[in-house]
Backbone:
């Protein structure tokens, strides 16, 4: 696995421009703060929704036999760009100790459930 942050591109502490990992690419459903019953955890609370969303990502990875280090790209859809600091905190905690994936952050008018504040889409490279 290696990361690439080419000179001349804006450098960040919360993502890498490229993360290369061999394996089979997996494109799972975007994850939100729904619990196993489909109830939104943290209605109106971005910190709680970030925590539940990353908890769900962890469960998804476990089901794949993967780890956070196997995530090579995330796309975060958010209903308010002011939520960025909370999302970055949750992201850094989730990826603590591993190389950060590439990342895209998109402001949207709404998500599948109006109670949802963010959704995180992933590309995971499952080791062969």
Residues:
């Amino acid at each position: 696995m290696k990361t690439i942050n080419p000179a001349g591109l804006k450098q960040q502490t919360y993502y890498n421009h490229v993360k290369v990992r061999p394996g089979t690419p997996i494109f799972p459903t975007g994850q939100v703060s729904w619990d196993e019953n489909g109830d939104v955890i943290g209605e109106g609370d971005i910190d709680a929704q970030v925590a539940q969303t990353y908890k769900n990502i962890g469960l998804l990875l476990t089901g794949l036999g993967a780890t956070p280090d196997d995530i090579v790209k995330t796309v975060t859809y958010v209903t308010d760009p002011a939520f960025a600091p909370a999302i970055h905190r949750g992201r850094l905690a989730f990826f603590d100790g591993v190389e950060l994936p590439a990342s895209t952050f998109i402001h949207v008018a709404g998500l599948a459930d109006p109670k949802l504040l963010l959704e995180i889409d992933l590309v995971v490279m499952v080791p062969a």
Summary: The chain has one domain: 29-126. The chain is about 25% helix and 25% strand. The chain has a mean pLDDT of 96.
